[in-house]
Amino acid sequence: xxxIVLLCSLVLLALLYLGIWFGAYKYLKNKKVDGVSLLxxxxxxxxxxxxxxxxxxxxxxxxxxIAVSGAxxxxxxxxxxxxxxxxxxxxPPALALFNARKRTGRSLxxxxxxxxxxxxxxxxxxxxxxxxxxxxVSIAGMDIKMAQTKASELMDEGFDIYERVSDETWxxxxxxxxxxxxxxxxYSLNSNISIPAGYKRAEAGILYSKYLVVKNNTVxxxxxxxxxxxxxxxxxxxKVVAIMMDEDCIKMLENTATKSNLMGLICYLL
Length: 270
Known about the structure:
Elements: H1 2-30, E1 32-33, E2 36-37, H2 54-78, H3 83-98, H4 105-128, E3 136-139, E4 142-145, H5 151-156, E5 160-164, E6 184-186, E7 194-195, E8 211-215, E9 218-226, E10 233-234, E11 239-244, H6 247-255, E12 260-262, E13 265-267
Antiparallel strand pairs: 1-2, 3-4, 3-12, 5-6, 5-8, 7-10, 8-9, 9-11, 12-13
Helix pairs in contact: 1-4, 2-3
């Protein structure tokens, strides 16, 4: 519910900004001075209406880039309290570019639209933020990206997936000899096993997991997949969304020297 309220607020804010811009545009278009609308009236003293050549543009952009770089260094060294001085540093070269040619009210409307868009994006970013980077787990030389790596890709890299077929009690031998376990069956890409539509909460622990990921007949951990919110998806096309390990799985990795990597930290456990 909170997300819906925030999204509706952003939509209303966008509509408000559009209304302000169109209102200002209509006012400048209808308001006339000496028979000329403010939209077409000059807003600076330059009489040159030709296009700015590329070499001149490069000079202006270099001036602005140097000013921005200096302002950033100033605020980084002296603190955000000097942001007002940054305006004085960036303002002159920006105004020089603006006044290099004759500008009309239309140019002001472009600047106004840019300013409103910048403010809207800043507010939207502060509310929504950027999407978080998918965590990466590296096992036996393969990078497994959550919500991106498919089951078929795991199997192409030499991993096996085992499906639980019995509710019998877990046996410790299953950790190192899963192929001989009557409780699990090796999954084949030719199988028609599918993951039901929707997202389900991961089970608590290895002992109750529906699927296991295995390397060299040794259990790496429980693995959970997601297919689609609206339709059933073949397991081979589903994406990994979670890998769960217990203490015994970690010991097996240590004993078999299977190097693992979690979020950039190389270790022998997850």
